[in-house]
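Researcher: Go.
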Amino acid sequence: MEHKSNEKNFYDICVITAANEYQAIGYRERIRIRKENNELPKETEFVVISDPDGKRIGSGGSTIYVLYKLIEQYVCSESNDRLNSIHDILSQKRILILHSGGDSKRLPAYSATGKIFFPLPLDFFPGSNPNEYVKREFITLFDVLLNNLMKLPYTDGGQLVIASGDVLLSFDPSEVKFSNYGVTGVAYPGSANVASGHGVYVPNQLESDQNLMKVADFLQKPSYEQLIQNNALDESDRAFIDTGILSFSIDALEKLISASGIFIDNGKLSLEKDGLCEQLIEGRVYLDIYKEIPLIMLNNNLNIFDGLKSDDVILKNSNSIISENSNGVIPAKAGIYSFIDGFSKTSFFVCLLSYCGFFHIGTSRQLLRNFHTINHTASMYGFQNLCRSKIKNITEFKNIFVYNSLIESSSIKSGKSSFIEGCHIKGNLDLSGENIITGIPKDVGELKLNNGICISCIPIVRSEEGWVTIIYGINDNFGLSMNDNSATLINKRLTDWIKENNLNIDDLWNGDVRYDLWNAKLFPFSIDVSESVRIALDISNGNFDEWKRSKRMSMEEILKSVDYKRFLDNYTELGKKINLERLTEILIPKSELSSEEILSWCKEPRDYRKAEEQLLSIINKTDDILFRARLYKLLSNIVKKSLSLKIYENPKSDRVFYYEEYAYNLVLSAIKRGLESAEIDFRKSEPTIKIRSDEVVWVCASTRLDFAGGWSDTPPYCLEYGGSVLNAAVNLNGQYPIQVIGKLYKEPFIRINSIDLGESIIIRDIQEMLSYRNPSDWTSLPKAAFITTGIIPENMDIDLQELLKNLGAGIDLTLFSAVPSGSGLGTSSILGSAIIACLSKIVGQSLTADELFNRTLYMEQLMTTGGGWQDQIGGVIGGVKLIQTDPSLFQIPKISWTDLKVKSNMNLSDRFLLYYTGYRRMAKNILRNIVGRYLDRDETTIKTIGKLKEKSYEMKLALDHRDIDAFGKMIGEIWELNKILDPGTSNDDIESIIDKISHLIYGAKLLGAGGGGFLFMVTKGAEQSSEIKRILEKEPPNDRARFFDFDIDQDGLKISVL
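Model: Structure:
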């Protein structure tokens, strides 16, 4: 007996069955929303299939019909030469069928949604981090069920898994084993009392493989005596109860399809005349997957169906009990006999679980009991009262299980055990007990319900949009008819209810129909929901005057008229309203709620004011500095939006600027706090000159080429997630392109010179020294470096000349950068590091590499340019290297080296080219925009940075394996990710350059923030490199464009004292 563990953790197709097309429309809308929100596995195709023309054909019939429709889909969509057999179509495919075509006649509160989309009281999705608030509005049984069934094992060759869509099972999926041939069911041990309401497996203990056993017999709702008689109880008097899960291996699946009369003929799908599938499509046959199918697999003797009750017979005609007929049989029976012969004696196994929780809500009373008693499923999944709800008068809210609701009632009275879900109640609430209230919108007034009375509002689309109110009793079963003595309405026997209220048959039923509760016109329709509710409440109190005059609908009509879009839109809007009211509870440091999402919750002017108040409240209660930065950025967005809508009479627009600037300043403070946490004080002691009057400090540095991981090194992302960057230190045309010379100045002033710019300035006062926040001013960088080294304090009150006298001398700095401005080679940061290193040497500070990197990080924040650590590490530390950091306010890089060269004697220019495009772009706005989007928790930004980060490691591995082709292709992928992150990364000019040589390269990208500067290319070979040079030198985009030779600098930053 072979079995498999899970090797394919997704389904190729998931089919949800529906009773009819009306129900299917609602299911498809649910699936559409989940697809839009990326809440479904991308590998799985989701399909909703209803029974043919709404004919009820049973779960077994539905299974066969679904398989027929899937095969039809494949035949129509694929080349016929590949489809010579059913095996060709289904081989290696994994299919899941969730049977969910019931009408929920005993649970009218959720008839419209279907039990499979019954909402669960969960604040977050099972298996996810509880601190991460899930973006979906409400979590349903389907969501959890799918998550659980994804963990079931896969069988070789192909598989069909069938499960019931109205039961939440709680079991350990690692216990499940499926046979690689035949059919395997899943069962769990339970009491004889529970077993009497379910299917029961009788395992053959002699033919077993651990907990996977052959099935000896299968019983349907057996009595205790039948359990004993069939040896179905273990030593602890427990039976093995069916979970409803069945796994068909590829051989069993092919047998099932073939036996049903479905076959491929010359590449076309065909049906056997009067075969089972044809009869199912015509609605002549009813087949239950949990009744007839197991019996057929265990015995091919047709007499197994003799003596069954009429409602259990495979044929819908109660007189057509199957029996032997040597003289021939009617076509319907012939097709069934053929199916039985074809599928009988299929290998049948059962996997026995050690435990399984069985959470089933079949009736209204079960719903109350399950949520008001302790049970394993509720504990396992963390069901919570008050989940996703906000209650104004929480102290008065007793004996009610409520979730997905906003209760703003001033007065609340409640008796025993009631249930509220999906409601926005503003009026007073008076519940006597055992009440179920669902779907009440905000426009409904006071609700007063007698004991056991339940109410639900459903949006309807007929000739006009409106609402219908379903009012019913806790014990009502809409599957019963007037002739059934157990039929009740509003908790009274139906016939007595009709008589006591002086009603006629014509008041409830039209024409020649069965007198069922399901088709009784009971429920008032109105375009005004409050009117519909009022009329419904009247009839619970015996007042029928307005009810008789109103338009009324039956449950059957309601399910055909549900406005599913409005139904789900109402749920969505309610969810947003609740989220906004709960903002102080759900917006926590680890949550990933985006500003865009929170803004979408604000619909009315008061919502914006409410959001601002709550955000200020959260800010006052947290000392998490980066969380505060995020909150202030969100505040600026809220205020900006409210100002655009003219919500405030006397708006103060400067609040937007203040909140936003404060957010960025908090990021700066976080970096400074990181330096302090590492016990780095800019002025631990008064600095003094440590070089001789005639000595010169000379610092040389290379530039850096960034390959992958850019933006993951940028605060605050790296502070919260850690960064990972692959880059290289390079010299250009054989020279160190960045140099700083520092010496003493005879006067107590600071002189700064730039050789490449031909500029010089003497700074004489502190105000001028502290003006470093303008990135377009070439002196901002050296000024900020003086602050970062601690030579100059951030204090406007000091006298600069006096300070320099105490230092020992003035300072003369000469800067040189042989790289064009806006190059994308990290020049600014590397030059900043070189200045800090030079100044530190002058005053005798001994900086570690980590201190130098973090001080440079702080310096760039001071200048308001932002920026990460990869530039300074890339240029200061030699070689080609992967640089990684952990989440921390003080970033400590871990470095591992690799090489661009396949061979030591390889010319880099054979495969790598560096081309200056002649275009430039300043990185400040780019950096600020992306940091801002990160603070906003923009999903695309965070995901894209995450992918860039992952690629850095993959590309390092490619270089380790000397796979330049793969490295080049990934350079191209990085370029595309950069463009997603910032569309301004490229432009028509840049794309024109790349288009000219795209056939000669594996990948290319602009270095740095993009938009201009240097283009790095990985070519397909030395010949292609030569051809690229010829093309671009012949037709350069401008007179500044040119190629640069480069080589890897293995040594890194050099400091000399001459």
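Model: The first helix runs from residue 21 to 36.
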